[in-house]
Amino acid sequence: MINIIAAIDKNFGIGYQNKLLFWLPNDLKRFKMLTTGHTIIMGRKTFESLPKGALPNRRNIVLSSNSDLNYPDTEIFSSLQEALTHCSANEQIYIIGGASVYKQALPIADTLCLTEVNANASKVDAYFPVIDKEIWHEKSRETHLADEKHPCSYSFVTYIRR
Ligand SMILES: NC(=O)c1ccc[n+]([C@@H]2O[C@H](COP(=O)([O-])OP(=O)(O)OC[C@H]3O[C@@H](n4cnc5c(N)ncnc54)[C@H](OP(=O)(O)O)[C@@H]3O)[C@@H](O)[C@H]2O)c1
Question: Separation of 147 CA from ligand 1 center, angstroms?
């Protein structure tokens, strides 16, 4: 099972200067809840943006063309396909970004676990690919209003392949 997990703004923006666009504690909690105990696959730049390196209690896979890379508690593969061939059939795989890896994974993913943030980030240089609604069916949507910890409203939306 290949799941994509991402937080996107109203224009599909996901990042700026290798940082996330928003700080939403409930989104981080949901990310941790969904991915813990499973396999996460990410691009080298996204890995480098993690403050403490590999995320605990998950199998961390990093994609890079540089086979000399050696990060603690991670496995490095030189393509998404190679990484997937090293995963077992019953493994829950979460593609956690960034833009380049989302683009490669979208055609083969089974589900999209998106946090749709109801905001237009002012500075964006990384985007999620366009979601074709002819292909992706909205299975569930849970909307949360802005509060003291969350500057804008946001929705946890799950899409499945039609
Ligand atoms: N909003 C969200 O949910 C979310 C989540 C994650 C990331 N982001 C954001 O996304 C942005 C980063 O995205 P990005 O596209 O610039 O970088 P990225 O996808 O994180 O990493 C790109 C790098 O990954 C490696 N890579 C990707 N595909 C590969 C392949 N098929 N084979 C070998 N190596 C491969 C390459 O590393 P080498 O150069 O080492 O070869 C490439 O330079 C940041 O702004 C980040 O904050 C947002």
Answer: 31
